[in-house]
Amino acid sequence: MPDSFSSPVTRRDFLSTSAKLGAFIAAAPYIARGAEVVAKSDQLNVALIGCGEQGRILTNAALKIPGIRFKAVVDIWGYNRTYAERLLKKFGHDPKPYEDYRQMLAEVTDLDAVIIATPDFKHAEHTVAALKAGKHVYCEKLMSNTVEGARSMVLAARETKKLLQIGHQRRSNPRYRHAKDRIHLEGRLLGRITNIAGQWHRAVTDDFGFPNGQGIPEAKLNQYGFANMHEFRNWRWFKRYAGGPMSDLGAHQIDVYNWMLGSNPTMCIASGGVDYYKTHEWYDNAIAIFEFPTKEGTVRATYEVLTTTSAGGGYHEYFMGDEGALKISENPKYTKLYREARAPEWDKWVTKGIVASPTSGEGAPAPVKPWEKVGVKKLGGPSKAGTVDVRETAALSAWDIPVTLDKAIHQPHLENFFDAIRLGTPLNCPGESAFATAVTILKINESIAAGKKLTFAPTDFVA
Amino acid sequence: MKFPEFAEFQHEAMATRFALIIADQSPDYARQAATACFRELERLESELSRYVESSDIARANRLNLGETIVIGEDALHCLLLAADASLATDRAFDAAYASERSPAQPADAPLFTLDPLTHTLTSHTARLHLDLGAIGKGYALDRLAAVLTDWAITRACLHGGGSSVLALDPPTGQSGWPISIGEDPHQRILLLTRCALSGSGLAVQGEHLVDPRAQTTAQRRERTWALAPGAGLSDALSTAFFVFSDAEVAAFCATHPHVGAALAGADGKLMTHGALTARLD
Fold this sequence. Notes:
The structure holds 2 protein chains of 2 kinds.
Chain A: E1 44-49, H1 53-62, E2 68-74, H2 78-90, E3 96-98, H3 101-107, E4 113-116, H4 120-132, E5 136-139, H5 147-160, E6 164-166, H6 174-186, E7 193-201, H7 218-223, H8 229-233, H9 244-261, E8 267-273, E9 285-294, E10 297-306, E11 315-321, E12 324-328, E13 336-339, H10 347-351, E14 397-399, H11 411-423, H12 431-450, E15 454-455
Parallel strand pairs in A: 1-2, 1-4, 2-3, 4-5, 5-6, 7-10
Antiparallel strand pairs in A: 7-11, 8-9, 8-15, 9-10, 11-12, 12-13, 13-14
Helix pairs in contact in A: 4-5, 5-12, 9-12
Chain B: E1 6-13, E2 16-23, H1 27-48, H2 56-60, E3 68-70, H3 73-88, E4 112-115, E5 120-123, H4 136-150, E6 156-160, E7 164-167, E8 177-181, E9 188-192, E10 195-200, E11 210-211, E12 216-217, E13 224-228, H5 231-243, H6 246-255, E14 260-264, E15 270-274, H7 275-280
Antiparallel strand pairs in B: 1-2, 2-6, 3-5, 4-5, 6-7, 7-10, 8-9, 10-13, 11-12, 13-14, 14-15
């Protein structure tokens, strides 16, 4: 029996000896039947339409949820379809592969739900067809690259009485939910929110290619709505397929603006352009300004998506109020809470588990050196009563959110979708709500194209 | 068509810099393949890094005694390889060395078990602490090589942070990828083909190498290198060799013919064992 140390070296597999389970006889003490984590009851049968990068992310997250069984995978590109099929088989699933989603919906009759991770311009077509076939749908954001497409999805869900969840996964992230429900709404720790600033800064990336011999014939690409292989592989950058970085990245974050405020903007003005890349149609850098109406007054917001630099602090949404500020991101290293000096102390919120004193990083006490005595104030410390100690402006006190995302990033949002099917749990991002975000995003691009400020009525956000 | 001799691409991940050197391909095609590799590298980091909150390894490190989680394909395979290396080296390499072991647990009892059928990991300690720092970069190189294979690129050399190198087929007309080990005047050049070489030492991170068997800092001060069929394995073995005594390294190589070792002495001279001896002679 070969093992990792002596397996015959062949070009194909010498680098992946670990991939052969038979190779791990030597590791037998580490192999044991795990506790049953997959419930046999309540199994949900699902199909995946769109097996590219995002489809793989959703598949890997869904595989960690008990009771989900993949019955089919659909992709017009055999390379992606085979990858998904092989991955699922390693987890004991036996999905049927399809090139055409219509054939899949006609033949796989025992599906409960369909997960859609295709290019944006196909979302409406695929979602409406799946809903009308009687399946619940989880569809990736942006809901559609057109308002009409997004509206058709909402109407189809209403008509079929099937569930439609859109993949704005931050709405199910426990840290985001804690921030909205406990910190903002319950504790009111931000006071009145007056401003929001958000950003996603990403370094330059190269276009995607494809392995020799794996190209799709142009006639087939045309049949499915793509011009050529370059546009198929880089569809996010072309206007006929998607909405560009504002849609790919900004949609996640501007959705959080709407969701956190419980409001949609009344005004947007934006600037952007194809400043850098030579082979793209969509704006590579774009900056937008919004006004949101809230019960407490206007919230002014900015958002910028830059795809030519990683400088400037990554990606986050920063909600700023008169008593505190919340900087939040899917990445915990960009997440922090700040208390304004005028706000009441937050000690009671620490006791309640709403906020936490940082133990490391920004806001944490400086480490005490072995030669320092704890409790002895160092030179320049706080002033004594009756004297004024002058120094640079004190930094806002920094705090942490005591919540850990203990799952794959997309897992809670998928779980919410499956719980809605099984238990009737309310969806965290139903089509109606995501429609408002889709309109907001599409209007930003419209504002850039028109070079002018756009104003909105509340009815613009209703499907 | 004649292409430039090499195309080199770099990417930062896993707290270091990875590089791909691709030979005998058009620059555009090589760049596209490198882009695919680096996307895969970012995905691997998100699954394997203990510093990424939602990674499988970070999730495993939050388990209580007896708890089980489903893990992804790569975490499973990397941990299986780690388990294999740990057993073969009598825990001179141990990805769980920093875990807390209860007094009742035998010293050689695994602190985690894996079920390949259900892709699950179960913790057998109240404080599991998995750290793939001494195997993850090598494992990633193996996976990137698989991506290159998909792209029908066979002539390439990959390295992660300079501590692990994975040589595929050499450029046309060459007999191997030149890799140097050791310091002048004892530096030696190897020509590697379809194998991996990793090094361990104290120069970069100081006294960071722990002997998992004694739970103390490893005694060795000079560098070690391991040659193996794959980079995940060479990465783990270079750490094990740093922990091993010279005699243990020699004995290990004698029983594993595809593995080689080089040990630097205090004077800088290199002592070689197993498959590495033939390559340096």
